[in-house]
Amino acid sequence: MCADYNTTADMEEQACGALRCLSANHAENQTRIGEAGGVNLVLAAMRAYQRSATVQEQACGALCCLSTNHAANQTRIGEAGGVDAVLTAMRAHDTSNGGVQVKACAALRSLAANHAANQTRIGEAGGVNLVLSAMCAHDTNMGVQEQACGALCCLSANHAANQTSIGEAGGVTLVLRAMRAHDTSAGVQEQGCGALESLCEFHAENQTRVIESGGVALVLAAMRTHKTNATVQEHACGALRSLCVNLAANQTRIGEAGGVDAVLAAMRTHGTSRGVLEKACAALCCFAANHAANKSRIGEVGGVDVVLWAMRAHDTSSGVQEQACAALCCLSANHAENQTRIGEAGGVDAVLRGMCAHDTSAGVQEQACGALCCFSTNHAANQTRIGEAGGVTLVLSAMRAHDTSSGVQEKACAALCCFAANHAANKSRIGEAGGVDVVLSAMRAHKTNASVQKQACGALQRMCVNHAANKTRIVEVDGIDLVLLAAVRAHERWHA
């Protein structure tokens, strides 16, 4: 019996290993194996040979490779009980075998990546505690720490319940401990920063936990130690961004600790990496949002030029264009020096080129309109630059092309308001290009959206001040009725 068991277990181990190798980085084989019933065979082996560490290790490895970037297999494995099988393996081989823990954490990472149902399954089945237990039991094992951090990253990405459970169970502390203990491991630093990014995304308690435990210093240390590693830099920029969203104290800490210089250094060193530039621009945006000191820091050390260089170098990347426009918006909002820097460095043309190149991207159009709004607020030179470079036409084109996007309509109306303020030439440009009709169309299409209504009313106000033709056009197309309706709805909301 024992000999038969061992012989059969060895066969299952080899079969799982073969499936792992066949499916690794090969989408067609992932599909073939999934459709041919391979998932169920792997899970059957795991259930039949729970005592065999080698079977469990190879099977977890197979599940990892089968599900990596493959939504259909993620779903197959989740619905077939694969999560429970992996967690059972972790419990059965918790302290005795680091190999099982490495492969199991890797499997959980792949199963949870961008898959909400599996994130929930893993969280509700106790997966968080098992991953953290693995980190505690194998604290000197770099492989376990790397894959565990990766699992925590994927489990918590856009999943509030898992963010909370990981934070409350001490996950932040363990991630930071792993980063301290394995500071020379690029893999641990990359996944550790990725975990911090996901854990802190719009989660104030985790942001505070990371800050109070010295997380900023660890992220910056990772960037210095692994400055030539693009993936470390990308995830570190993402972590810094998540740490300071909607938290002024963290913006200050990161700014004073050298975060601005670290992010700009990453952009300069990894200028060919779209991933780094996208995350870095997003980080600069969050550093600068409503934070005057960081706006000044970034402007004074050449941040504007670096962002504009990124836009020019990656003009075909909608992600870089969107995040760069967002960064320029935050840098220039209520900051005259940065408005001037951006205008004189060609920022208006860079943004308008981005709008032309990515006219079908609502994200680029929204952020670009926001940037143009901030450039031109109380800044006559930029108002003129935008008007003469065709900015009015492009903003109106964005509104027509993305008429169902409330974000585009809101930011575009705000931009038109800023273009027209005390600027006769831009008022005429807007009127002659059909701007009145486009703004009123936005009000009709988004009549229940208070933000669109507010910005549209502001645009109409600025367009018609001391401009008879625009006043006449607003009356002719029933603009007064729309403004009155917006006012009535605002009154009702206030008194609701």
TrEMBL record:
Keywords: Repeat. Residues 306-473 form the LRRK2 ARM repeat domain. InterPro entries: ARM-like, ARM-type_fold, ARM_LRRK2, Armadillo. SUPFAM superfamilies: ARM repeat (SSF48371). This is LRRK2 ARM repeat domain-containing protein. The lineage of its organism: Eukaryota, Viridiplantae, Chlorophyta, Pseudoscourfieldiophyceae, Pseudoscourfieldiales.
